[in-house]
Amino acid sequence: MRDCFSSNEDETFHGQLLNILFENESFLYLVCGSQGVPRLFGELLTRCISKTKSRKLPRINPTVVFESIISDYTVNVRQRVQYSSRIFIKIENYVSQKRHRFFLVKMEDYNRALNYFDGFTATAVIHQCTSEQLPRSIRNSYKLFYVHYGNYLESLHEKGLKNFYETASSADKELYPPLPENILDTINDYVMEIDDLDVDDFYCPICRKHFSLKGDIKKPHSEYIKCPECNSTIEFWPLHAEIS
Questions:
Q1: Is residue 205 within 8 Å of residue 216, measured between CB atoms?
Q2: Pairing state between β 142-147 and 209-212
């Protein structure tokens, strides 16, 4: 569908259909927000149509698309992860500060926090870039992850998302934006550091206290662990693997 929209043949059936439904380049943003998943694309499109009809708009505009994508992230994606995870908080802070749609993790940090990154990938918080898509100089030392498009848009909202589509770069309309040509010279600007405390932290949402996974909590044998303070049973997916 994206190739169809990129076509200059506005007189074709697909060109006319997209021009009837979408204003400006709303369709491209919708594709980015779908993360390339057909089911999610359909769900977002349904929401966009509903919003457009309720506001009596002639076509789906970028604002409607952005609102739907951000809502998918904050309601459907973000709610499924541990809010207190220090790594998750780092990801959100990184996006807010850097305004990048991807980040790099050193290979040694990735291996230490593998369970977390697997969990974030499973819940669509991030998407891992395959090694064959990366330059040799990067793939041997780093893992690259794209953040959820809704996370990126929400960070831009803080500085005026309303005018985003007027100043958006071509990379903002790419499902997976290309790496900067000078990334090797500025690579530290894209690296997210993982500390020992980040992979040793457990937070209980019931009593709202933090504990050490290695010092305070016995090794779990399932995805559920008991809080040492209030004895509540908490689901904690990063612990699917053994803590060393």
A1: no
A2: unpaired
Burial 195-219, CB ≥16 within 10 A → b, else e: eeebbbbbbbeeeeeebebeeebee
* Confidence label for 7 from pLDDT (cuts 50, 70 and 90): very low
Give the span between the Cα atoms of 12 and 70, in whole angstroms: 32
pLDDT at 6: 47
Cα gap 117→32, rounded to integer Å: 21
CB atoms within 10 A of CB 65: 30
Q: Is 82 left (phi over 0), alpha (psi -120 to 50) or beta?
A: beta
Give tens-digit pLDDT for 168-227: 788 888 999 999 989 999 999 999 999 887 877 777 778 877 777 776 666 554 567 788
Tokens 């990126």 -> residue: 152
DSSP state of 22: B
E strands, 137-217, are 142-147, 201-204, 209-212
